[in-house]
Design a protein that fits this description.
The complex is a heterodimer of chains A (about 70) and B (about 400). With about 70 residues, chain A is an alpha+beta fold. Chain A has a single domain, classed as Alpha-Beta Plaits (2-Layer Sandwich), CATH 3.30.70.20. Helix content of chain A is about 20%, strand content about 20%. Chain A contains two helices and four strands, in the order E-H-E-E-H-E. Chain A is globular and about 35 Å long. With about 400 residues, chain B is α+β, with helices and mostly antiparallel strands. Chain B has a single domain, classed as Cytochrome P450 (Cytochrome p450, Orthogonal Bundle), CATH 1.10.630. Chain B is built from 16 helices and twelve strands. Chain B has a five-stranded mixed sheet. In chain B, strand 6 and strand 7 form a beta hairpin. Chain B is globular and about 70 Å long. The chains are: A alpha+beta (about 70), B alpha+beta (about 400). Chains A and B meet through helix 1 and helix 2 of A and helix 4 and helix 14 of B.
Chain lengths: ~70, ~400
């Protein structure tokens, strides 16, 4: 399962993530910082989320592969 | 302004880092003002060098160093940065103030320029864009800059500030003098005039507030709940005036100049009008390749950066157009690829001072692409662009851009 997370201390509200994958990323109405709508990345959006991560000018986004609970 | 202020280099600048470079001077025959910067790269100028021109300043040519200057505000300040030095220069809010003081106005303005806020402005921007295009679409030609690219951002500014559209000619003239005049007395008088107009605006909005940004600024509070100093409010209005007009005008000028000479790019946009994600991706590439701003910073304290001694008050010029083509960061950097997948250009800066108006600027360009391609048939450059004045400085651009197209009888 792939998860995406944002480090808000690095986010300055470019909204490139929202432009690239609005299904997973939005921005708040206060400072325009990243809001993650779906922490778990749906398989069919993985490619777009990867592009959003690569295009963040502040490198504020991270992808992580999590092993499901119970698996060794 | 060119070369008029040419002091000897300071003692801490080694002679092998001195390059003779005047970023205001565009030699005869240059069609694109950014070429003088690309010449530096072709000549293999040191990636950090010093020029005596324009009061003396450093230049950073690498992406990594420009990003460091943007992020590290403790060392690279935005306070009192003009190149050549101009004193006293208004402390523009919040751009000309370092964190933490910069947060007061940044927090106040932030909500007004988020993607959500800009989405709410779209219809009005569309209306203004289509009205401008209607003034020339049946003529088969226009000067894209005089007839459109200078007018849309200024018209948008009027809308945001709650000013009537009838005042467009007055504000176009104020902006034209501010951005194009090189006469010191004219400029000083013009800045006074802009401040007088802002004073009148904020005074009126305090008395009679509306739903506009000027009303929100004048009613703004600092984090402790105190009213903001009136001079700071004026300086914030001044920033909104100077930051959002010329940059957008010249970015659009560069983009339409490219479109007018590139049939495949016109075809791409015509085919993508219903696909915002494709338009946005192509727009990011055009922002990368057509960055018009050369950004200034002032060294805040004496320190050594990558083995180079920088002294407090040294000025630094950061050319976005060049670092957006840094081969260490971008694949095939000189190639314009409208489908470019990874594109971390710094056209809007990075860090605390990321261009507050970036979403508005992008929306103005997006709306223009949609309205233009919906109304104007295939178009081309109307005259030899080398005959039309290219200018350098903090914002690069052209005096005019004649475009032509067929008009059906």
């Amino acid at each position: 399962m792939t998860k995406v997370s944002v480090n808000l201390a690095l986010c300055y509200g470019h909204a490139r993530c929202e432009d690239i994958c609005p299904e997973v990323f939005a921005t708040d109405t206060d400072e325009g910082k990243c809001v993650i709508l779906s922490e778990v990345v749906p398989d069919h959006l993985l490619e777009k989320v990867e592009l959003a991560v690569l295009n963040c000018p502040e490198q504020a986004l991270r992808l992580s592969d999590e092993v499901e609970a119970g698996a060794s | 302004m060119t070369g008029s202020f040419y002091p000897p280099p300071p003692d801490h600048v080694p002679s092998d880092l001195i390059v003779d470079f005047d970023f205001f001077h565009i030699p005869q025959g240059y069609e694109d003002p950014a070429e003088i910067w690309r010449d530096l790269v072709r000549r293999r100028a040191p990636s950090i060098f010093y020029t005596r021109r324009n009061g003396g300043h450093w230049v950073f040519l690498n992406y990594e160093d420009v990003v460091e200057a943007y992020r590290n505000f403790d060392s690279f300040s935005t306070y009192q940065t003009p190149v050549p030095p101009m004193e006293p220069f208004p402390v523009v809010q919040p751009q000309g103030v370092d964190p933490p003081d910069h947060y007061v106005f940044r927090h106040l303005l932030g909500p007004m320029f988020t993607p959500a806020a800009v989405r709410g402005m779209t219809e009005e921007i569309q209306r203004r864009a289509s009205r401008l295009i209607a003034t020339f679409m049946d003529k088969g030609r226009c000067d894209f800059i005089a007839d459109y690219a200078s007018k849309l951002p200024t018209s948008t500014f009027l809308y945001l500030m709650g000013l009537p559209e009838e005042r467009l000619p007055e504000f176009l003239e104020l902006a034209h003098v501010f951005f194009r005049s090189t006469d010191e007395a004219t400029r000083a008088e013009n800045i006074q005039h802009i401040y007088a107009v802002l004073d009148e605006l904020f005074t009126e909005k305090r008395r009679n507030p509306g739903e506009d940004i000027a009303s929100a600024i004048v009613a703004g509070r600092d984090p402790s709940g105190k009213a903001l100093p009136y001079q700071a409010i004026l300086n914030c209005g001044f920033l909104l005036f100077v930051a959002g007009l010329d940059t957008v005008t010249n970015t659009m000028a560069y983009i339409w100049r490219y479109l007018s000479t590139t049939p495949q790019a016109r075809a791409y946009f015509r085919a993508s009008l219903g696909e915002p994600e494709s338009i946005l991706r192509a727009m990011e590439e055009l922002f990368r390749i057509n960055a018009v701003s050369n950004i200034f910073r002032r060294v805040q304290k004496d320190f050594v950066y990558k083995g180079i001694v920088l002294k407090r008050n040294d000025r630094i010029v950061l050319p976005n157009n060049i670092v957006n083509r840094d081969p260490a960061v971008f694949e095939n950097p000189q190639q314009i690829d409208l489908g470019r997948k990874v594109n971390t250009h710094v056209t809007f800066g990075v860090g605390h001072h990321r261009c507050l108006g970036s979403h508005l600027a992008k929306r103005e360009v997006m709306v223009t692409i949609q309205e233009w391609f919906a109304r104007i048939p295939d178009f081309s450059l109307g005259a030899d662009q080398s005959a039309v004045g290219a200018f350098g400085g903090s914002v690069m651009g052209f005096e005019s851009l004649p475009l032509t197209w067929e008009v059906s009888a």
